[in-house]
Amino acid sequence: MKPLWLILVWLVPAVAWPLDLCLPTGNDALLQGRDADFFQPTVGGEVESGMFGCVRNNGHRLHKGIDIKCLDRDRRGEPLDPIHAVADGEVVFINTKPGLSNYGRYIVLEHRWDGVAVHTLYAHLSAVAAGLAAGQPVRKAQVIGTMGHSANTREGIAADRAHLHFEIDLLLNPNFSVWFPKHDPQAPPFGNFNGKNLFGLDPAALFREFAGNRKMNFADYVARQHVGFTVLVSGRQFSWLRLHPEQVCQPAQTNALPVAYEIAVTPFGVPVAVWARTAAEVAPDQLRRVPILNRVDEAGIETASCHHLLERGRAGWHLSNDGREWVELLTYGP
Ligand SMILES: [Zn+2]
To answer: Are 100 and 152 in contact (CB under 8 A)?
Structure first.
């Protein structure tokens, strides 16, 4: 029999752990409005290129995290900044072979903030803290590694541009490790913690909001994210519904079975709400054509110009090949 305390811990709802964050390095210029001291630009030098969003290749490529400037270097110019876990959580993945990923050497932590399963990713590290391994718990502000400039790209990252690439992500599918090798036999051995399965929110926006309101609720924060479009998928169950019950709105009539799910998505592929739709809400011809793009926020999608999930044809917007693949991954179950 399980001890009583274990049963009690298990019964406490996940909301018992509220959002409690610190910054991932000693650089806190973000919170003083000194963006130029906080964001590490690309070689082009514009501060914006270190921020989240359509900031790369003249706005055509998404930067799915933020690049944080180095504060401390040794005599050879190599970075020394310790990297901190931004919150209590668990180590779920460490890539110790920098040549295998454009993240270089990276760590992924899993957290549960106000009931939401979320991951933080720390990339381009020069070293992982001694003894740190997947499966271990970490505490907020615990040192998990050292800043670096590791990467697999041909041009690499020069030491003078050493930075922490940091992401706050939602994991699209816990079955990614089964799905992905079917699409890419050369898939690196990162399991579910491949960047292609991690869809990001803007970390700088979250840090700023948390600094202004330490009682903010992360589930509400996700629900408030800008929705670029909604997609209608079949009524078959998929893992997201089970892993993100906080997002799922069931039909008003509890005895009505869902025939489809409508998913609201940020322009960059993070689902933020899911509605179970009944036969009364979905036309039969729509149901035959799922997955389909249901609603688009034209203005929002235009400003997020580097998204790849939608395309505009003569008949208006539709899911691109990337968009259809995104739906396939989201709803995939072995
Ligand atoms: Zn970056």
So the answer is: yes
For residue 40, what are its two tokens? 């590490």
From the CA of 192, how far away is ligand 1's center (Å)?
Answer: 20
Separation of alpha carbons 181 and 301, rounded Å = 31
The whole-model pTM stands at: 0.93
Distance 217 CA to ligand 1 centre (A): 26
Give me ligand 1 centre to Cα 293, in Å: 30
Cβ-contact 84, 139 below 8 angstroms: no
148 Cα–ligand 1 center, Å: 12
Q: What is the pLDDT of residues 218-267, one digit of tens each?
A: 999 999 999 999 999 999 999 999 999 999 998 877 778 899 999 999 99
- pLDDT tens digits along 61-75: 899 999 999 999 999
Cα 199 to middle of ligand 1, angstroms: 14
Please tell me whether residues 85 and 200 are part of one structural domain: yes
- Residue 188: is its pLDDT beyond 90? no
Instruction: Report the run of H or E that residue 212 belongs to, with start and end.
Output: helix 203-212
Q: Are residues 291 and 197 in the same domain?
A: no
**How many angstroms does the Cα of residue 300 sit away from the middle of ligand 1?**
23
Q: Are residues 230 and 103 part of one domain? A: no
Cα Rg for the chain, rounded, in angstroms?
A: 21
117 and 63 within one domain: yes
